[in-house]
Amino acid sequence: MALKFCANLNFMFLEASSFLGRYRAAKAAGFQGVEGPYPPADISPESLKTVLDEAGLKQILMNIALGDAQGGQFGCAALPGWEPQFLANLERTVEYAKAVGCGKIHIMAGKLDGTATDAHDRTYLANLRLAAPILERNNIIGVIEPINKYAVPGYYLSCYDKAIQTITSVGSPNLKLMFDIFHAQHIRGNITNSIRELAAHIGHVQLAQVPGRNEPDSDGELNFRHVLQVLGTEGQYADGWVGCEYRPVGDTVEGLRWLRDFGYWQ
């Protein structure tokens, strides 16, 4: 499978003077696709669609709208009492995604004040079961992502076994796993076998070096030449897009040399 790389605009091209400027900068740097946060309130679907069309870019993935979720970030899918907000955020994101031609939504679970309880588990499963037919009707893939405790302490979903159990319980072809290599290394390691074991459930992949969350060729724990080779040959998932969700060490464009050194770009 040929891997394709999309720029994560929550982390990359922050040198641009505006949110939409990040899109233009990503295209100028050579990207064909982008992913990132739900756009700010002052960015209409029409204005984003115009920039995407002008640049010839595809919006591959979008985080769910966060609305008034706890702490203003990280979603609310697992938070009891926030079910109306979850549904409103999902429906809002689906409509925006359809308007700009985005086929994947990252459904975020939320941060907890303490340990997860049965109530959190029931809420999460019920919300995802509610989301599944909405995603299916609109031909959108929802992805759920285990996030490591060092990056986001208290995030509800921090276990791959729990993620797969949830996906299996929902039983929808439109609910998949976000396999973020950065988080996977922190949570379970053994990346080669993790790709092989989880491939059937993966709907999207993201990457960053560990532990610094920088470019794949920066110093760290992982040999990304090998990891990406395994992903390309054995991680037969979805559409082959890989999100570059890393913090550039310096200038974003200068840091893209790894794509050429690894043989993915000319």
From TrEMBL:
InterPro entries to which the protein is assigned, alphabetical: HyI-like (IPR026040), Sugar_Epim/Isomerase (IPR050417), Xyl_isomerase-like_sf (IPR036237), Xyl_isomerase-like_TIM-brl (IPR013022)
Q: Where is the Xylose isomerase-like TIM barrel domain?
A: 24-261
Which positions are catalytic residues? E145, E245
Task: Decide whether keyword Thylakoid is in the record.
Answer: no
| Gene Ontology biological process | glyoxylate metabolic process
Q: Enzyme class, one word?
A: isomerase
Q: EC number(s)?
A: 5.3.1.22
Query: Which keywords accompany this UniProt record?
Result: Isomerase
Q: Which domain of life is it from?
A: Eukaryota
Pfam families per the UniProt record, alphabetical? AP_endonuc_2 (PF01261)
Q: Which reaction does it catalyse?
A: 3-hydroxypyruvate = 2-hydroxy-3-oxopropanoate
Look up keyword Isomerase and say if it applies: yes
GO MF terms here are: hydroxypyruvate isomerase activity
Task: Give the matching PANTHER family.
Answer: HYDROXYPYRUVATE ISOMERASE-RELATED, ISOMERASE
Function of this protein?
Answer: Catalyzes the reversible isomerization between hydroxypyruvate and 2-hydroxy-3-oxopropanoate (also termed tartronate semialdehyde).
For this chain, the family text in UniProt reads: Belongs to the hyi family.
For this entry, the protein name equals Putative hydroxypyruvate isomerase
